[in-house]
Amino acid sequence: MKTIHWNKVFAITATKTSAFFGKNCIIMPIFAVGFTLLMRFLYAYVIGDEVGVPGFSNGYALGMGLVMNICMTGIYCPALLLAEEKEKNTLRALMTSSVNSLEFFLGSVIPVFLAAVILNFLLIPISGYSMPASVLPIFALVNILCALISCVIGMLLGIFAKNQVTAGTLLSPVMMIFMLIPMFSMMIEVLEKISEFVFTGVMMDLVIGLAMGQGVSLSGLQLAVMAAELILAVILFMAVYKKNGFEKD
Amino acid sequence: MNKEMIRLSHISKKFGDDLVLKDINVCLQRGEILSFLGPSGAGKTTTIKIITGQLRQTSGEAWILGQDAGSMNEMIYERLGLVTDNSGIYEYLTVYQNLKYFARILKVPEARIREVLEQVGLAEHQKKSAGKLSRGQKQRLVLARAVLHKPEVLFLDEPTSGLDPSTALEIHKMLHQLKEEGMAIFLTTHNMEEAAKMSDHVALLNEGVIVEYGTPEELCLKYNKTKRFRVRLAGGREELLTQSLETAKQIAEWMARDQIETLHSCEPTLERVFLEVTGRELA
Ligand SMILES: Nc1ncnc2c1ncn2[C@@H]1O[C@H](COP(=O)(O)OP(=O)(O)O)[C@@H](O)[C@H]1O
Ligand SMILES: [Mg+2]
Questions:
Q1: Closest Cα partner for B251 from B228, B269, B268?
Q2: Cα B68 from chain centroid?
Q3: Which of A32, A59, A170, A177 could form a disulfide with A69 if both were Cys (CB 3.0 to 4.6 A apart)?
Q4: Inter-chain contact B91–A92, Cβ cutoff 8 Å?
Q5: Confidence of residue A248 (pLDDT cuts 50, 70, 90)
Q6: Vertex B192, ends B189 and B195: CA angle to 5°?
Q7: Residues B90 and B202 in one domain
Q8: Per-residue pLDDT, A237
Q9: B248 and B176, same structural domain?
């Protein structure tokens, strides 16, 4: 186990936070917010009260927005920020200034993770859905797990990207999987089944179930899916990191 | 104060079947500047990467600050400074913020930031975003960052390559000062004037082999086979004379009549030495 010097981690966190607010990254959470608003008004118009449960269209919009944010902020931003450090040769500068890989990983992931978690909460009022307070602990748990998994996946993909352009190309197919499967699960039956085994799908199902008035509960399967995907992402990341470091030449 | 900072012994490096470093032996003491002078592709950067633990040698031993370069951890970098073309800066941060970032990592007090900013002549640009700096200013920022924590060994991989002469001169001055303060400096260059001016010892590196090693003066004198003198006489006439009894008499005669305006010995430059040893040009 590597030692962690928190002065280094927090220095990296501070700089990564300003990088996160740079124009390449900040459009991702903004996009998630815009998308949620769009869905909110679109569904209010299209679905209306058809389902017969008040607030369903808002809940549906929330589910869409959450999945979007987990993918756009949670996966895309860490990958992009890592690719940027490689492109500008600043990663090498850090690593030859006594920063170790664990410190770099933590410093990089902390701000994006926090941003994703906080924004997931903010999306509740943005979607107009009134979530009962009793549900918040379970929502928080799923929120945190999803943000964590997505950040690890983002870092993993970032290893393969030499620069920001390749990061974009590389990420698109992965984002499609984690984004579109849960989003279209209500419409396409096959996807509904697959979606149960995708962490973003767990989040979607949780919110939809809630919106349909089915109450909230987290099944053993759902917990297992998230735990398994977190462990898998970490193992994959460590394996790829061990082989290549953060830079795959 | 003969403290050994770096020792390379029988270092070889292969990339695939390509042998790019062959039996490199060299050491660097405290307060000394050692230069690797060689054309591009000679293996200078590879040598720095091996000593700083970024690359593993194929055989031989590399020691830095008493540690084996292959098995040390990242904490060694708290005692090293690096200026290479892989040393990126954060373009969206200001000059000051760039240094502040690394000061936090390396636990350097903020007063030191202002000190190095003065030293590299960037004090008046400290609020500028680093992306807007000129090439020479960027290089000075990288240098400022490299010496922020007063490292014991400073590595400079072609630090003045592509810079204007006045910036290069300022960097040379600063290196001189750092060396006086006791820093050990490992410099690589393909510029023979830089090597001649800056180095306590020079290793001429050609295709991964140190073909000559010594002080710049030693090397130049060693290859001074036919000693020649350039004389400029009153009236503007120039003569190139080769060492001989006649030359001695001739110079004595001119000197007696106070006709000599300038008199220079024509020992070879490091560039000529390199050409003579390897049969190829530096650039
Ligand atoms: N990662 C690498 N893989 C394969 N060959 C390399 C690698 N790095 C350097 N080389 C080769 O090693 C030789 C020395 O390179 P380098 O040390 O960069 O030279 P210099 O810094 O003196 O210009 C060159 O022929 C270069 O092509
Ligand atoms: Mg080089």
A1: B228
A2: 23
A3: A32
A4: no
A5: low
A6: 65
A7: yes
A8: 94
A9: no
Q: Whose CA is nearest to atom 10 of ligand 1?
A: B15
* pLDDT band, very low/low/confident/very high, at B215 (cuts 50, 70, 90): very high
Dist. CA A135–CA A113, nearest whole Å: 21
Whether pLDDT at A1 is above 90: no
B204 and B246 share a domain?
Answer: no
Q: How far is the centre of ligand 1, averaged over its atoms, from the C-alpha of B209 (Å)?
A: 13
Domain match, B17 and B132 both: yes
Comparing CB atoms, the residue among B74, B90, B107 nearest residue A90 is B90
Reported ipTM: the value is 0.90
The residue type found at B212 is E
In 3D space, the residue among A58, A82, A219, A48 whose CA is nearest the CA of residue A159 turns out to be: A82
Whether residue B276 lies inside any domain: the answer is: no
Secondary structure (DSSP) of A151-189: HHHHHHHHHH-SSHHHHHHHHHHHHHHHHHHHHTTTT-H
Report the alpha-carbon distance of residue B195 to residue B206 in Å, rounded: 15
Exposure b/e, B20-33, CB count within 10 A at least 16 = b: bbbebebebeebbb
The CATH number of the domain holding residue B41 is: 3.40.50.300
Q: Indicate the burial class of A185 (C-beta count within 10 angstroms; 0-12, 13-18, 19 or more).
A: buried
Burial of B80 (0-12, 13-18, 19+ CB in 10 A): buried
- For B232-238, the CB contacts below 8 A with 24+ separation are B232/B260, B232/B261, B232/B262, B232/B263, B233/B259, B233/B260, B233/B261, B234/B258, B234/B259, B234/B260, B234/B261
Looking at chain B, the whole-number percentage of residues with pLDDT higher than 70 is: 99
Closest CA to A222 of A119, A145, A151: A145
